[in-house]
C-alpha cells in the first residue's frame, strides 16, 4: 500500500508560498495535485507527492528551510478532531498514546515510536517516513518533527524549553536562520530522527486545547454550511463520522469537544428532536451502505463500525434497513430512517 497522508499536512503551504513570492498552485500542479488539497484538509495525498512538493517549493524559492517554516502553521489543529481527543486525556503520556494509536487515520506509511526512557531518563519519540531512498526527505522531516514539537508544546508548555529535535541530516542553513523559526533545540547528524525530552514530563496533565484548535474544530464542523450555523445534530454527526474508526465515537468523548457535559448534550439533542443513539445509528448505517456498495466484506464492515460480533451488526442493519446486510447488498434497498 502506497504511503499517504491527509492534505491537512499542507497547512501553511499557501501563505508561505505567497510570503516567498512563488506560485503554490503551479508547484502543486507540477506534482499532479489539484489546488483542492489546499481547501479540503481530509483528502489523501501520496507522501511521495508531499515530499516532492516541499522540495520543489524550497528549490523554487531558494529557501532551504521551507519545510521547517511550514511547521509554524501546524499544531494540534492539524489533526482535526483527533487533536482535541488527544488534549482530553489525563496525562501527556496518554495523549501521545492516542496520537500513536490513531496516527494511521492522519497518515499511513509513516510510524511514530515512543521508546522507553534511556539511562539519562530521557524519552525518545522516533519518526520514520517510509519512502524510496532516492527521495530527499530533509524538508519533510524538518516539517514533521517541528510539527511534533509544536504538538508537545500545545499539550504542556514545559516541552517548549525541554525538548530537543534530533535529525540524521546535517543543517541546511545557519543556526541563526533555524533559531528564527523555532524555539526548539535542534541537533543534527544524529542517529535517529526523533523528539527527545525528560521522561518525567509524560506524567504532566495536558493543557486545555488552545482556542485556535477549538476554532479550527468549529471551522471543520461548519464545512459546507455556507456561513450559516449548523444545527447541533449535524455537528455531532460529523464528529461521530470522524471518530467511529477510532472506537471513540461516544457521548463522553464528543460532549467535551463541543464544550458541553454529557447531560447537557443529551438534553439539547432531545430538544432538537433526536438523541445520540439515533445519530450514531444513522452514521453507522451511512458508512455501512457505502462499504457494502464497495463490496467490502460484511465482517470487515462490522468490525470497522465497532461491532465485536457479526450477528450484532446483522441485527442492527436489519433494524435500520428492514433486511440483513447481505440481502440489502443484493437488492440495494434505500434507507428507511
Automatic annotation (TrEMBL):
Keywords: DNA-binding, Transcription, Transcription regulation
Pfam families listed in its UniProt record: Arabinose_bd, HTH_18
SMART domains: HTH_ARAC (SM00342)
Domain HTH araC/xylS-type: 234-331
PROSITE patterns in UniProt: HTH_ARAC_FAMILY_2
PANTHER family the UniProt entry points to: HTH-TYPE TRANSCRIPTIONAL REGULATOR GADX
Name by which UniProt lists this protein: AraC family transcriptional regulator
Lineage of the species this protein comes from: Bacteria, Pseudomonadati, Pseudomonadota, Gammaproteobacteria, Oceanospirillales
Amino acid at each position: 500500500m502506497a504511503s499517504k497522508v491527509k492534505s491537512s499536512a499542507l497547512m501553511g503551504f499557501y501563505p508561505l508560498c505567497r510570503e516567498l513570492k512563488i506560485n503554490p498552485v503551479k508547484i502543486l500542479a507540477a506534482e499532479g495535485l489539484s489546488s483542492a488539497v489546499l481547501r479540503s484538509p481530509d483528502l489523501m495525498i501520496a507522501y511521495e507527492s508531499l515530499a516532492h512538493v516541499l522540495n520543489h517549493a524550497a528549490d523554487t524559492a531558494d529557501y532551504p528551510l521551507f519545510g521547517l517554516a511550514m511547521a509554524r502553521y501546524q499544531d494540534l489543529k492539524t489533526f482535526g478532531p483527533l487533536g482535541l481527543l488527544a488534549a482530553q486525556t489525563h496525562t501527556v503520556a496518554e495523549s501521545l498514546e492516542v496520537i500513536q494509536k490513531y496516527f494511521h487515520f492522519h497518515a499511513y506509511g509513516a510510524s511514530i515510536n515512543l521508546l522507553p526512557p534511556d539511562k539519562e531518563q530521557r524519552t525518545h519519540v522516533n519518526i520514520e517516513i517510509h519512502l524510496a531512498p532516492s527521495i530527499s526527505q530533509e524538508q519533510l522531516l524538518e516539517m514533521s518533527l517541528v510539527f511534533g514539537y509544536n504538538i508537545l508544546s500545545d499539550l504542556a508548555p514545559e516541552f517548549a524549553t525541554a525538548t530537543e529535535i534530533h535529525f540524521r541530516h546535517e543543517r541546511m542553513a545557519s543556526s541563526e536562520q533555524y533559531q528564527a523559526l523555532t524555539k526548539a533545540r535542534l541537533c543534527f547528524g544524529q542517529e535517529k530522527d526523533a523528539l527527545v525530552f525528560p521522561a518525567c514530563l509524560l506524567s504532566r496533565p495536558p493543557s486545555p486545547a488552545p482556542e485556535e484548535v477549538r476554532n479550527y474544530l468549529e471551522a471543520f464542523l461548519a464545512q459546507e454550511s455556507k456561513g450559516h450555523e449548523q444545527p447541533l445534530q449535524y455537528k455531532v454527526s460529523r464528529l461521530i463520522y470522524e471518530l467511529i474508526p477510532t472506537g471513540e465515537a461516544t457521548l463522553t468523548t464528543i460532549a467535551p469537544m463541543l464544550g458541553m457535559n454529557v447531560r447537557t448534550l443529551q438534553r439539547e439533542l432531545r430538544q432538537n428532536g433526536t438523541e445520540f443513539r439515533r445519530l450514531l445509528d444513522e452514521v453507522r448505517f451511512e458508512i455501512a451502505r457505502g462499504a457494502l456498495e464497495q463490496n467490502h466484506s460484511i465482517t470487515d464492515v462490522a468490525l470497522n463500525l465497532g461491532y465485536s460480533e457479526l450477528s450484532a451488526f446483522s441485527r442492527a442493519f436489519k433494524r435500520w434497513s428492514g433486511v440483513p446486510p447481505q440481502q440489502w447488498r443484493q437488492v440495494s434497498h434505500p434507507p428507511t430512517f
